[in-house]
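Exercise 7. Given the components listed, write out the predicted structure of the assembled complex. Treat all entries as one system.
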Amino acid sequence: MTPSRTTSGGAPGPAGQPAWELLLPAVGAPARRRGRALQEALREAVRSGRLAAGTRLPSTRELAADLGVSRGLVTEAYEQLTAEGYLRGERGAGTWVGGAVRAPGGGGSGTGGTAGADGRGVRGPVAGVGGPVAGPPGPGLRVDFRPGVPDLSLFPRSAWAAAQRSVLARLPHRALGYPDPRGLPELRGALAGMLARRRGVVADPERLVVCSGVAQASTLLGFVLRARGLRTVGVEDPGSPEHGRLFASTGMETVWLPLDGEGLRPGPLAASGVRAVVVTPSHQFPSGIGWSAERRTALLDWARAVDGYVLEDDYDGDFRYDRAPVGALQGLDPERVVYAGSVSKSLAPGLRLGWALVPEALLDEVVERKRTMDLGNPVLDQAVLAEFVTRGGYDRQLRRCQRAYRERRDALLAALAEHLPGTGVSGIAAGLHVIARVPARFGPPERFLARAAEAGVALRSLEEYGTARPADGDVRLVIGYAHLSPSAVAEGIGLLAGAVGGPVGS
Amino acid sequence: MTPSRTTSGGAPGPAGQPAWELLLPAVGAPARRRGRALQEALREAVRSGRLAAGTRLPSTRELAADLGVSRGLVTEAYEQLTAEGYLRGERGAGTWVGGAVRAPGGGGSGTGGTAGADGRGVRGPVAGVGGPVAGPPGPGLRVDFRPGVPDLSLFPRSAWAAAQRSVLARLPHRALGYPDPRGLPELRGALAGMLARRRGVVADPERLVVCSGVAQASTLLGFVLRARGLRTVGVEDPGSPEHGRLFASTGMETVWLPLDGEGLRPGPLAASGVRAVVVTPSHQFPSGIGWSAERRTALLDWARAVDGYVLEDDYDGDFRYDRAPVGALQGLDPERVVYAGSVSKSLAPGLRLGWALVPEALLDEVVERKRTMDLGNPVLDQAVLAEFVTRGGYDRQLRRCQRAYRERRDALLAALAEHLPGTGVSGIAAGLHVIARVPARFGPPERFLARAAEAGVALRSLEEYGTARPADGDVRLVIGYAHLSPSAVAEGIGLLAGAVGGPVGS
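Answer.
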C-alpha cells in the first residue's frame, strides 16, 4: 500500500472519534485492490487493538464520505468482517467492533497481512480432509465420486521441475544438513506472507511449523495436549472420522459434537467436557456450511473459558467460487487456535507438505514433538515450495485449479438437474465436493447406493461421516468432483440415473 | 550369478553330507566377485535352513577342493560368517553352523541377497546417530570436530537434479496422490535389493517401511512397543543420548546398559528387566567397536527368551575402510530385529529419508503408526532415490564418500601422530569418527577441552555419551572428521596441539 496515492477527499474522521484515517492508506490502493485493502486495514485495526472491542463504527455512508470511496465498498467490508467475527452488526442499529478478537501474545510481530493484497482470484475453503480415498478402484469402477482427492493431472510438473533445478543450483551446502524442525526459514517466511494475504490469519513465521500436512498437525497437537493431561477431543458431527483416528493415535478419545446449519451447537459443546476441538469453520466438511459469525465467536469464548484449544483444519481454504472467502478463525484469536493447512489440494497430497500456526503457549512443545517424530520435513521440497510461493507460481496454480474445479462443479450441477431432477444441492460454493440430497423416489438409500455400485459409480453417503441418520427417505451424498473431467462428471451422473431409475435409462 | 560359468573341478561333496554343491553357482561368479558370492551363498544356505544349526562344515581344505577354489577364499568366508554369527568355530576343532539364525516367518520370501553381489568398494558401518551437531558454529570457531555430520558438499547435486527431472517426466499422476504409508513400491524394492546385497539383511520389500530416517524408525518402534505395555528401553553405555530422547518421547524410560570391548554385557542386560534395546553392533557408537559374534548371538538369545525386540541402528553401515563389513545383526533373526538405516550419511540428512525392516509381528502396528504420524513419506524424493539406487548412482555415491572419508581419516591419524604423540586411536576402521585417547600429560580433560574451545576447536569428549567416567587422566575424544577437508583436519589438530601444549605451538 502506498500512502502517497491517497485519493483526494479522504478527510480524517471527526475529532474524538477513533482515527479512521488509519484506513486511508488502504483506499489509496489501486482501484481493483481497494476493497480488499480496506478490509485488511480494518481487520488489522481491530486485531491490533487500535479499534477496541465495543467501538461503534460510523455508518457506511459516513465512512464512505470520510474516506472518499463508494458506499458499496464500505458495506462490503463491514459484511465481510462481520461474517468473520471481527465486527458485530444489528440491522438498523449500527455496527460495532466485536469482542472475539485477541491480539497474539508473546513477541509475535503479527502479520504482514496488509501488504500486497491482491483482489484477483476470489477463493475460499476447499474439500476433503478425508484423506486418501480408500483402496484402488474396484473391478468395474467407472466413475469415482468419492471426495477428498484433487486432480493430480493439474500438478505443475514443468514449473516444479524448473524450481527444483533452481533450488539445487543455489541452495548452500549447510541447508542439506539436519533441518530446523520448524521448517526452512525461507519457506516459513513465504508461507506466513501468503497465508496472511489469502486467509487473513495472524501469521508470524516464528509461530509457523512446516509439517507433513494437516494429518501430522493433528497428531502433533494431539500428543502435546495429551501430555498436558487432556483425554478427549471434540470433532464435528457430521465430520471427518479421520480426525478422530488421528487423535486416537495420540491417546485421545473422540467426542462427536453436533452441528446445525451455523456451526457447532454451543450447548452440547459446553456440556461435553472437552477442552480441545477440531473444526472446519470456513467450509465445514462434509456438510459444506460456513460457520456463522456468532458461532465463531462463541467457539472462541468457549475456548478461553475452559482454557482450551481449537484446531482449525483449513483443508480447502483456497477454493471458493461465488463469493469472497471468509477469513480463517485463527485471525480472531491466534492464542487459542492452531491453524493447519497443506498443499494437498492445491498441488499434490504426495508432497506431504503443510503448515501449522501455533499459539505461543504450545509452540515449544509442538516443535519438540515434531523433532522427535522426524527431525523436520525434508528440505528440498520445502525450498522448492518457497520459491514457488515467492515467485508467484503458487498463486498461478491456485487460479488454474480454481478455474478447473469451478467448471467441474458447474458440470455436476447441470448433470444432477438433468438426470436426477429434484435433487437439492447444499453447502456454500467452495471446495472440491458438494452435498446432494436426492429425492426419496430414487431411494431408499441402501438400494440407491447398491445400484450405483453395480453400475460402476462409487459414492459416499453423508451418513458415513457422523452419527446422524436421516428420518426421511432422501439419499444424502457427499459428491467429490474435482478429480473428474466435466465429461466424466456427466457420464457418472448419467450412469447413476440409469441405475436408480432417473429420466434417462430407466 | 551365472551357473553356466561354473569352473571345472567343482565336484559335489560326498554323499550323505549336506549338499555343498548348493555353493557351486557362487564360485562360478567372475573371479573378482567369487569370495563375496561364496559368502552370500553360505549365508543364504544357513538362513534358509538348508544348512541346519549344528551341521559341521567341511574343513577349509576339503571345501576348497570340492568347490575348486583357493583355500584362502573359503577361510575368509568362514571367518566372515563366524564374525557375523552364522557360523561357530573353535580353533583346531572345526566349524559348525551356529544356532543364532532364524528364518523370517510369515510369507517373507527373503532376500535377493545373493544376486548381483559385487566385491568392489568394501564398506561397513558409519558414524553418528547423534543427530544434528548442536547449534551453529560459535564465534571464533575454526575447526569443528564434533561427530555425526557427513560432508554436505559431496551431495551429488547434478545427478540428483537429473533424476528429479526424469522422475517428474515419467511418474504417473496417481503416484502424486496420498502415498502408501509403507513407501513407494519401487523404492521399497530397490532398497530391499541394495540392503540385502550390501548389508546382508533379510530384506523383504513387504517388510520394509520407508521413513524419515533412523530417528523416526525409533519413534515408530517406541510407540508400538509402548502400546504393547513396555515401559523401558535399553541403550548402550556409552551410546547416543539421542536414542533415549527419542524413546522418551514415546513414553519409554531409558535404561543404560554397560558395554565392554565385545558388545553389551549379558549379565546387566538380563538383570535390567528391559524387553527392548537399541544397539549399534556393526560399529558401536561412539566407542567404535564391532560386536563379537558371541555377543550378537547372546543378544538374540536374550530377545527370544524375553519375547523382546532389538532396534539395530545401522547408522554408518556403508563405510568401512580396512576390512570387509560385518553383515547386519538383522540377518540372523529378522523376527527379533528391527533394522534401521538412512541416507543421512551417504547423501544428506536434509532428505529425511530412511528405512526400517520390521518383524512380521510388529509390521501392521508400525505401518499404522507411520500412517497417523504423517500418512507416509513424500513421494518425489522417494522416486528419485529409487532411480538412484536402481541405476547405480547410489553405489557410485558411496564409493565417492568412501574415498573422501578414508583420506580424511588418514589425515587425522597422521596429524594426531605428529602433533599429539602418544595418542591412541581405537575402534574399528569405519564410519565418520574415531575415538582418540590423548595422554594425561596434555590434560586434565576439563582444561584440555577448555583450551581447545579457546583455540576455536570444537570437540566432544567420550564422557558426553554415557555414564562412565574414566579413572585415569587421559582425555578421551570422539573426533568426527568426515565433514572436514584433509587440510582442515590437519589445521584443527595443529591448533589443538598448540593450545594444549603439544610439540607445535607450546
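Discussion: The domain at 14-97 of chain A is CATH 1.10.10.10 (Arc Repressor Mutant, subunit A). The radius of gyration of chain A is 23 Å.
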